[in-house]
Design brief:
Layout lengths: L1 H9 L10 H10 L3 H8 L5 H14 L3 H15 L4 H13 L3 H13 L6 H10 L4 H13 L6 H14 L2 H16 L7 H13 L3 H13 L6 H13 L3 H13 L6 H13 L3 H14 L1 E5 L1 H5 L9 E4 L5 E5 L5 H9 L5 H13 L6 H13 L3 H13 L6 H13 L3 H13 L11 H7 L5 H9 L8 H16 L6 H13 L22 H14 L8 E3 L5 H20 L8 E4 L5 E3 L2 E3 L1 H15 L4 E3 L23 E4 L1 H16 L1
Length: 666
């Protein structure tokens, strides 16, 4: 049919009314046939409009590659760039989440000496609302080119400041806008006021938010649902719950119908301030009696026809008392579950009440329940909730698994935590920023991303005791680094130190030797240290029991040697006797660690000291196989020339293992 229509058009037949061109083009869009869509659109005299519509159709389907191809064809046909098409493709880039491509298109305009109009600038800034520095550079360039910003330009800048939490800058822009309004250049709209209200709400500046309300009434602008909600949020975020309730009542008197999110904001404020009982009392009062608001006859007469209320009672002074119903949502019950603290039975009853009211618990509900189970160290309850979540048809995501893993870690069940971690990966839940459940982040106040799953496992370092477990954790660590996420190196370093130093004494050995500090996480040499040690610990001791520490620093060499002894000890406990001497190769090279040059002599002395003084082992240095003097008795003025090798005899190792085993039994 399509080819027949094209044939008729090519032959010069008049086919208007037979088929709508966009109906045909939409079919090509569904088939992702860009070439055919371009060819078909070019047949018609209004091909520019058809190509723009085709480009937007691809954009709605988030097919950016095909939309860009249509945009290129549109440019070639016009012999230049159409501003409407350019604005449309930038909006499509924003819809597809590609702000970089939007910037490239804009830079292409500038390279061709084309001055974009205000609408193109606005679309570009809206696509980059997450980048304050870039948007303000675009705004300055806009002024430099003489393009006059309109109200939308300023509103987008306010939105950018709000996203960046730059409250002072937002205030400056708002003052500039008010001045332009006073001069008759701009006319502020509800979006402007709502954005500023949101800015002050997030900054907990309730007084400034209230001033915005006064500004609106001064110019005759009426507050809408978004503005009232932002104002309620400003009071609630500042801990002024009573003030937030008063704003809710004022909202009703103004004729704006409150919705469930307005009530949820107040309940969330109570939960954040740990006023759990009051949250339940307020919820029960709203459910049973609604919210009562006294209105004058004038206020009652100004209510819109679609305003919903369940009861009306006569009030004082000829007024009336209106009872506005409260209809809770799933989010409302989720907030109440948070108010249960560590009482898992109460949280479960809240979820059951949610079901009785015809609402279905969502992923957030189950995750909150699992988190409460984990906090109360009820691992079985958390796992049962996870499995129940699967049975009811809710697809598990990274956030849900993280909560379950956290519950296992808090119950000291590392084996099950690692099992869930592997199960999560088996379901192809890969590290991706799109795995964040924003609502769960807001409600549980946890940063539930994939790297938090790693951190949950790594921070449970005191739970690890065997070589197999430490190797699993190191594998997780290296997988995290390869996935491109920020490594929590501080916790891994503590984990390695506690595990390896465990061969010295029950209290974890000399941890001060390592100068553990969180600020070291950003140190490049610190990360290199972890990479070296991590690679070594994942290998088993070979049959000849030879350890090569050449090129390592004193700290690295100590970790490697102690880790080797830890491995030997664990194998001894499993019944594998030591049959060979342990040989440590130190070499004659120099190594550099934290910008301090260390010689092989220093490394050899450090290893000898820990072996002889702290472990009581008999060691021999160099090919002469003579025992060294204890480091405590060695004169510092007579340094021994490094021989490149330290040997611990099999008899000394077995004697040490027997003493160690006897001490552990005691």
């Amino acid at each position: 049919m399509f080819f027949f229509v094209i044939f008729l058009l090519d032959c010069g037949f008049f086919v208007k009314g037979i088929v709508d061109p966009m109906d045909v083009l939409k079919i090509f869009v569904r088939k992702r046939d860009t070439d055919m869509a371009i060819r078909y659109a070019r047949i018609f005299p209004h091909s520019q409009l058809l190509l723009c519509n085709t480009m937007e159709a691809f954009g709605k389907r988030k097919e950016l590659k095909h939309a860009l191809k249509v945009f290129g064809a549109l440019k070639d046909q016009l012999g230049g760039i159409n501003m409407f098409a350019c604005r449309s493709i930038i909006d499509i880039c924003s819809h597809c989440g590609s702000s970089v491509q939007a910037r490239i298109i804009f830079e292409g305009l500038l390279a061709e000496k084309i001055t974009p109009n205000t609408h193109v600038f606005n679309s570009l800034m809206n696509a980059n609302a997450h980048s304050m520095s870039y948007n303000f550079s675009v705004y300055k360039h806009m002024q430099k080119l003489g393009v006059r910003p309109d109200l939308a330009s300023y509103n987008i800048l306010l939105k950018t400041c709000c996203n960046a939490r730059e409250f002072n800058t937002a205030q400056e822009i708002y003052e500039e806008m008010k001045k332009k309004e006073h001069d008759g250049i701009l006319k502020l709209d509800v979006f402007t006021y709502s954005t500023m209200m949101k800015v002050f709400a997030e900054a907990k500046m309730w007084k400034m938010a209230s001033n915005i309300k006064d500004d609106m009434r001064a110019v005759g602008a009426r507050l809408n649902l978004v503005t009232w909600s932002s104002l309620i949020n400003a009071y609630a975020n500042s801990g002024l719950v009573d003030g937030a309730i008063e704003i809710l009542e004022e909202m009703i008197r103004d004729g704006c119908q409150p919705t469930a999110p307005c009530f949820n904001i107040i309940l969330t404020a109570l939960v954040k301030s740990c006023q759990y009982d009051r949250a339940f009392r307020l919820f029960n009062s709203w459910i049973e009696f609604g919210i009562k608001v006294s209105l004058s006859l004038e206020q009652k007469g100004s209510l819109p026809d679609n305003f919903t209320f369940c009861e009306e009672h006569p009030g004082t002074n000829g007024g009336t008392i209106l009872v506005v119903p409260f209809r809770p949502t799933v989010t409302t019950y989720n907030i109440l579950m948070m108010a249960c603290g560590t009482n898992d039975e109460r949280a479960k009853s809240v979820m059951n009440e949610m079901k009785r009211n015809g609402l279905c618990p969502d992923r957030i509900s189950w995750s909150i329940l699992m988190d409460i189970y984990g906090t109360s160290k009820n691992r079985n309850g958390a796992i049962q909730a996870l499995r129940r979540m699967q049975r009811v048809g809710i697809k598990l995501n990274v956030s849900a698994y993280t909560v379950a893993i956290k519950a296992c870690v808090e119950s000291k069940d590392l084996k099950l935590a690692l099992h869930l971690f592997e199960e999560m990966k088996a379901h192809q839940l890969k590290p991706n920023m799109n795995c964040i459940d924003v609502r769960l982040h807001q409600i549980l106040r946890y940063k539930f991303m994939f790297q938090v799953t790693y951190r949950t496992l790594l921070t449970a370092r005191s739970k690890y005791g065997s070589l197999k477990e430490i190797q699993k954790c190191l594998a997780i660590y290296q997988e995290m680094r390869q996935a491109g996420y920020q490594a929590y190196d501080y916790y891994l370093k503590e984990l390695i130190v506690e595990w390896s130093e465990g061969v010295l004494s029950s209290d974890g050995g000399n941890r001060n030797f390592y100068h553990l500090d969180r600020k070291d996480e950003r140190n490049e040499s610190f990360n290199l240290f972890l990479e070296k040690v991590a690679r070594f610990l994942q290998k088993d001791v070979d049959q000849n029991q030879t350890v090569d520490v050449r090129g390592l620093s004193k700290v690295e060499a100590r970790i490697v040697v102690l880790s080797t002894l830890r491995k030997i000890k664990e194998k001894h406990l499993l019944g594998r006797a030591v049959q060979d001497d342990l040989v440590i190769i130190t070499g004659h090279e120099k190594t550099s660690y934290t910008d301090v040059e260390t010689t092989a002599t220093d490394v050899e002395h450090a290893i000898t000291a820990v072996l002889t003084d702290e472990l009581g082992l008999e060691v021999f240095v160099g090919p002469e196989s003579r025992p060294p003097v204890s480091s405590k008795l060695r004169a510092p003025s007579r340094p021994r020339r490094p021989q490149g090798m330290i040997k611990i005899t099999v008899n000394s190792l077995n004697h040490w293992l027997k003493r160690k085993s006897a001490r552990d039994v005691q």
